[in-house]
Amino acid sequence: MTETFQFNLIATDGKARRGTVSMPRGEIRTPAFMPVGTVGTVKAMYLDQVRELGADIILGNTYHLMLRPGPERVARLGGLHELIRWPHPILTDSGGFQVMSLAGLRKLDEQGVMFKSHIDGSSHYMSPERSIEIQGLLDSDIQMQLDECVRLPATPLDIERAMEMSLRWAERCKTAFGDQPGKAMFGIVQGGDVPALRVRSAEALASLDLKGYAVGGLAVGEPQDVMLEMLDITLPALPANKPRYLMGVGTPDDILKSVARGIDMFDCVMPTRAGRHGLAFTRRGRVNLRNARHAEDKRPLDEQSSCPASRDYSRAYLHHLIRADESLGGMLLTWNNLAYYQDLMKGIRDAIEHGRFQAFMDETQEEWARGDLQPA
User: Fold this and answer.
1) Active site residue 267
2) What would the pLDDT profile of 279-335 be if each residue is shown by its tens digit?
3) Is residue 93 flagged as an active site residue?
4) Can you say how many angstroms the Cα of residue 355 is from the centroid of all Cα atoms in its chain?
5) What is the pLDDT of residue 376?
6) Which is catalytic among the residues 93, 147, 264, 302?
7) From 13, 267, 302, 343, active-site residue
8) Angle between helices 156-177 and 195-206 (to 10 degrees)
9) Cis peptide, bond prior to residue 195, ω within 30 of zero
10) All structural domains of the chain with their residue ranges
11) What CA–CA distance (Å, rounded) separates 45 from 113?
12) Which pLDDT does position 1 carry in this prediction?
């Protein structure tokens, strides 16, 4: 542990990076996957389980937590870490994406955005300063700037306007954040699918000398090849000595290909959401437990896994739980999925350290391709 926020590169393999982010509440081994704990809970999991699976950090969401239980209440209760019993690092999303996608009627201008809650229709105001204030009340360790995220496809003019607004908001967030020893504020690169705007955004944010940088606006419906093209264009414009976070991504394949381009941190609701809907991620690819072929399959999802949900329960039982709409089914599959994601990240880190990341990626993709059909 350290009293300051530090990023250290341990090894590189091509553009893939192995490092650590150190701060007072703990060390994050990178590349890292952050389970999403939107409202102070990783759905269907105990946080003790999440930690045991290898997670060094989880994500909370400013928009949802400001609506309930409210940031001032969280602060009175000792902060988010104490409230949810997670003493390790927490990153908070600024709330910008949810304001744009979930909130009701909203009015955006240079100062911020007025919006109506998706819960009860009550009116709220979010400015860059208020976003940072809320994240401070939550006492998160990594705080994100407020940005305007444009859903693709969009016109270049609209993408440019939102990108420029986000840059001005980044400067205001930096001022509002001030000097908080041991904590960090990350800027967010925007620019949609327009290469020149991506580079302009990255270069402008780099000039602010922030402690870390996120790439935003690339989990909003665009094809994978567009996402990867934008990473190829964007990452060379970001400082090599700062952590790089790809927001809202993604599938195991997205993660492998993004690590290969130099991304250090990821978050996504996919493993938890998929688990609640009967989809398992495994070494052999995806397994849909709703399918009838699992009804009498005595095999576990992965006999080699250290996770009990993956190793000790038959597919037949998991199939039954999902088809019967029993909550235990979603709990077990979420446990399996988060275990798989953390095992994948550990495999990635080990491969980079040993200079065999490309071989690891090839082997992993080949095993997915072989699939998981019942042996004849």
Assistant:
1) yes
2) 999 999 999 999 999 999 999 999 999 999 999 999 999 999 999 999 999 999 999
3) yes
4) 26
5) 35
6) 93
7) 267
8) 10
9) no
10) 6-268, 275-370
11) 33
12) 66
Tokens 């690891």, located at residue: 360
Radius of gyration of the chain (CA): 21
Q: Which residue has the tokens 């890292």?
A: 32
59-73, 112-126, 224-238, 322-336: range with lowest mean pLDDT: 112-126
Per-residue pLDDT reduced to its tens digit, 172-211:
999 999 999 999 999 999 999 999 999 999 999 999 999 9
Q: What is the mean pLDDT of residues 110-120?
A: 91
pLDDT for res 372? 82
The yes-or-no verdict on residue 374 having pLDDT over 60 is no
What tokens appear for 31 in the block? 């590349």
pTM of the model: 0.97
**Residue 91 amino acid letter:** L
At the fourth CATH level, the homologous superfamily of domain 6-268 is Queuine tRNA-ribosyltransferase-like (3.20.20.105)
Q: Which two tokens stand for residue 138?
A: 């939550």
